[in-house]
Specification:
This protein has 346 residues and is of the alpha+beta class. It has helices at 7-18, 31-41, 46-59, 63-68, 71-78, 85-100, 109-114, 120-129, 140-149, 159-171, 178-192, 210-214, 271-278, 337-345; strands spanning 231-240, 245-250, 261-262, 265-266, 285-287, 291-294, 299-308, 322-326. It folds into two domains: 7-219, Orthogonal Bundle (Endonuclease III, domain 1), CATH 1.10.340.30; 231-344, Nucleoside Triphosphate Pyrophosphohydrolase (Alpha-Beta Complex), CATH 3.90.79. The chain is built from 14 helices and eight strands. β6 and β7 form a beta hairpin. It binds a DNA duplex (11 and 11 nucleotides) through α2, α6 and α8. Belongs to the Nth/MutY family. It catalyses: Hydrolyzes free adenine bases from 7,8-dihydro-8-oxoguanine:adenine mismatched double-stranded DNA, leaving an apurinic site. This is Adenine DNA glycosylase.
Length: 346
DNA sequence: AACCCGGGGGA
DNA sequence: TCCCCAGGGTT
């Protein structure tokens, strides 16, 4: 008697033995806990997320706590995780839920996707993990697994390819155990069908994996087309007053490091112009060690300077987007990684 | 140094 | 509808 290979059965069987069941967001599961974890897990690996998740849930244990907190505090809990729009959107969505949707996450995929920060894949994950409904996800793990399983000959980020992968993902859904199945896919991609050195010998899908049959698993997924990245130059000014406080400016909500605190930044301006703009006296600046910060789309060459204001300067009061802060209190603030790195050098 | 990754917003 | 953007971590 011939049996047909069943993808979801194979995956679920593997999950029972080898899947992860002790992640923080798998304990006392609620839609809110699933939601926060899924947002943090966008672009970010489990091991990085865990400590942030613990701290975040301790401070914002439910939707009401998050909605009523101020955005700066939310961002300070996000600082270091990257992609700060996620934190802003999480806060914005919590407010929409708290004030307009009766305080609970909607149990409806269309409505979930209207909330800022929740796209199709995250909505699918919430529907499956929190509400046990039959929805597919298509995160990086699933894209990698399916690209290999079907030997997909194009970059999975390409819109046309992505569309096909969604269809595949939906076609493979089981008819029950949606939460387990969703977790199983993520676990397989994260722990076994990894980008480098996948453990094909222990893979439940090995017998029907097209890439494995071709003996070229590591050629999938096909890479993103390359682009050359521009290098940008920027100067940062570390201004210290007589109270050993540092001047930080809040960046605009849009763009790089939106809403986070940074050193005053300039590119070509004269020091005099910069001081003028900052309403501080022109003082000799000392050059500090430069360093580079790399993004996917560009590189940033950062040249910091330090300026110590003399006793004659009386501190101008803080404004909403401008603050004088003691080094030891700086940890409380939402700072991008290279700012934190420079602070640690001071 | 190259590569990875969900969603928003503008072209 | 497509392309660009964003940031820290891993390899």
């Amino acid at each position: 008697m011939m049996t047909i290979f069943n993808f979801s059965d194979a995956l679920l069987g593997w999950y029972e033995k080898h899947g992860r069941k002790d992640l923080p967001w798998q304990q006392s599961v609620t839609p809110y806990r699933v939601w926060v974890s899924e947002i943090m897990l966008q672009q970010t690996q489990v091991s990085t997320v865990i400590p942030y998740y613990q701290r975040f849930m301790q401070r914002f244990p439910d939707i009401a706590a998050l909605a009523t907190a101020n955005l700066d505090e939310v961002l300070s809990y996000w600082a270091g995780l990257g992609y700060y729009a996620r934190g802003r959107n999480l806060h914005k969505s919590a407010n929409i839920i708290h004030h307009q949707l009766g305080g609970e996450l909607p149990e409806d995929i269309e409505q979930l996707q209207t909330l800022p920060g929740i796209g199709r894949s995250t909505a699918g994950a919430i529907m499956a993990l929190a509400f046990h409904q039959r929805y597919a996800i298509l995160d990086g793990n699933v894209k990698r697994v399916l690209s290999r399983f079907y030997a997909v000959e194009d970059w999975p980020g390409k819109p046309q390819v992505e569309k096909q992968l969604w269809l595949r993902a939906q076609a493979l859904l089981p008819d029950k155990d949606f939460a387990k199945y969703t977790q199983a896919q993520m676990d397989l991609g994260a722990t076994l069908c990894t980008r480098s050195r996948p453990d094909c010998q222990n893979c439940p899908l090995q017998t029907h994996c097209a890439a494995y049959a071709q003996n070229n698993v590591s050629d999938y997924p096909r890479p993103r087309p390359k682009k050359t990245v521009p290098v940008k130059q920027v100067q940062w000014l570390v201004v210290e007053n007589k109270h050993q406080e540092i001047l930080l400016l809040k960046r605009p909500a849009m763009g790089i490091w939106g809403g986070l605190w940074c050193f005053p930044e300039f590119t070509d301006s004269e020091l005099e112009t910069v001081c003028d703009r900052l309403e501080i006296p022109v003082t000799d600046a000392q050059i500090l060690a430069g360093f580079q910060h790399t993004f996917t789309h560009f590189k940033l060459n950062i040249q910091p300077f330090k300026m110590a204001l003399d006793d004659a300067f009386s501190v101008i009061e803080d404004k909403p987007d401008r603050i004088w802060v003691k080094i030891k209190d700086i940890e409380e603030l939402a700072l991008p990684a290279p700012v934190k790195a420079l602070v640690n050098q001071l």
